[in-house]
Fold each of these.
Amino acid sequence: MLAAMPPTPPTTPNPGEPPVRDRGDACPGALRLHAADDGRLARLRLPAGLLTVRQVMVLAAAAEDLGDGSVSVTSRGNVELRGLGEGCGAELAEVLADAGLLPSATHERVRNIVASPTAGLDGLGRADVQLWARELDSLLCGRAWTAALSGRFLFVLDDGRGDVAGLGGDVTLIAGGPGPRSVRLRVGGQDFLVADADAPGAALAAAGAFLDTARTAGNGAWRVRELPEDRVPDLAGALGGAGIAAEPVPAREMSQGAPPLPGPLGGTALHVLAPLGRFTAAQLRALAESGGDVRLTPWRGAVVTGFPDRAAAAHRLRALDTYGLITDPRSPWVGVGACTGRPGCAKSLADVRADADPGRGGLPVHFSGCERRCGHPQAPAWVDVVATGEGTYLVDGRPTPRTDLPDAVAAARTPSATTR
Ligand code: SF4
């Protein structure tokens, strides 16, 4: 049986946080629960967001039996269970482990792998990064030293379409270059080309190079961007030491691909979004009843696979619409996000999930209960709505009473509006 760890105190990871070297890595996990205002919170890492039908059903049951009846999807395609009781940690751990969702008790918080969610489904990618994700996860869980990575360290695997490459990975792999070394490995300002077959191993070696550098830097960096400027991971040495042939190349900006819209996907899959990023247990079961694997996305949706043809996927999409999921690409709720807010977060100045109003479709918009803006979009342009007190907000910096939010948000979401 897996043992649950004691809950962590509330964390302060962003603005106003203490100097890097003074922080303890209290990032929540499935075994290390966080004490929130609405009960314990568990964060379960799902490499590439992948869930089998059984695992979706187990999560739905856990949310209902142990939590508040819902599951939140994070900006890394992981999930959070909220409202957990004081003493349920061991039971939750056992349920998740039985379903194969906790392959390593020691490494559960370092399995942060985002991969292009539609890879292999629509013919647009240049490599099946879902397979890379599984191999990288196996490598991570199979090495004792990787447990020293922070719970925030992120691997990003982009299949060449550019949909996830801009999500701020510490180690990023981008498929699709020319020649035998077709994969770009990016860490900080360094780019190397490696062969497709070496890609997961190269990502692991890069993580090792980061850890070595962080140790010698001595500042307790959790992420590559937190290293002192004069400390650069020795990627060439790490790749060479792992027997991986690699070619240094100039860093190159990559155009950012758009996230998929809700609807049928290729010939055998569909994509839906969770309202404000949260699936109820009933909605999860509806996804599972579709019969195929589910991939949760960094845009807080789900790709459901396994349909015989596009007509079957479209038919199922109509059924999912009746569960309150976002299935229409024209829905004003596409691109609308919100943090936890009240009552779950003690820092929140408002119940932002209740106040969130999409106005009308357009740019992504994120409602935050305070200036930390947890989970805000990584998009190049988005509308920033931040609570400043009970009933008052800033919409892209403009003071706005809650009653005026719909009009103000609608105006800000139009592409011509001045946004972040
Ligand atoms: S942004 Fe939201 S969830 Fe994050 S600390 Fe502020 S109120 Fe809490």
Amino acid sequence: MEFDAQVIAAYGRHLRLRDASGRVLQGRPFGRKLQVVCGDQVRCTADPTHDEIHVNEILPRRSLLARSTLRGDAEPVVANISLLVTVIAPLPRPDPFIIDRYLCATSSAGIRALVVLNKAELDIAAELADELAAMLQSFETAGYSVLRCSAETGSNLEALAAELQEATSVFVGQSGVGKSSLITRLVPASAIATGDLDRDAEGRHTTTSSALYDLPGGGAVIDSPGVRDFAPSISSLEARSLGFPEVDRLAPGCRFIDCLHLQEPGCAVRTATESTAMDARRYESYRRLRRLHTDLKAAQGPGKRRGQERA
Ligand SMILES: Nc1nc2c(ncn2[C@@H]2O[C@H](COP(=O)(O)OP(=O)(O)O)[C@@H](O)[C@H]2O)c(=O)[nH]1
Ligand SMILES: [Mg+2]
Ligand SMILES: [Zn+2]
């Protein structure tokens, strides 16, 4: 018998599903091509001879966060989210270029973005504090909201909860920044227990899992494992601005309509780095992503396409 369910945890091909009545079931995708991720709505069948559910179909996604593999193929990360929360902390030291790439991935996917500095209570060296302040300023100049909070002291968590209200969010960021700690603070303990994302069906600890938790005031939040790097899938990037909102705003001032904002004369984006309209670090990030985008497209050349079919 067919029924629909929501994927509330995914660790590789092991899935935790929740049906319409709220029952939690174990399942796996049926068919190797089905790339099911946390947040997906799926159509399933219960196999009467096994106590496992087959996921046969992914229902249309309202949004998708997708990364690019080194070969330039798109790989889904989480589905049906409306907000991406990039969590950073003074330690481990943030890499702003990775944050920029996450932010770019949201632009054309119709996903709102928020940057959260956690562990804001830490007493840090003046040099690092200045570096962080400049980094946060670069995101704000681009137009993103920034929130400083602490899972440790609870400071500013009401503001974070207000941002998450009614949204389906995903928390991304390096391992150790405090994503799980923040979620533990926002979600009632009872909801965490039923999710228990850190262990798979056999009770093993997993590091490659994402899990969804319902928020008390409505909405849900997806905890994700820390990643060292992230590149948005080629198809999820806008060809012109690569998802940099300030590039979108400035590009109409460029002399050439097809300006890539690199060496072209009369480029309004490059010129803006001399004022406050375009942060110089963000511009460097744009140049790097432009190079990566070109490389990934080349990796998708006709010779390499065939290997892709096997997946
Ligand atoms: N000082 C401080 N430590 C924190 C804070 N939030 C989390 N931590 C610590 O940072 C470490 C990593 O936290 P965790 O939530 O597992 O990070 P995740 O890998 O991003 O999920 C743990 O030792 C937490 O206790 C915070 O606001 N302040
Ligand atoms: Mg965690
Ligand atoms: Zn330009």
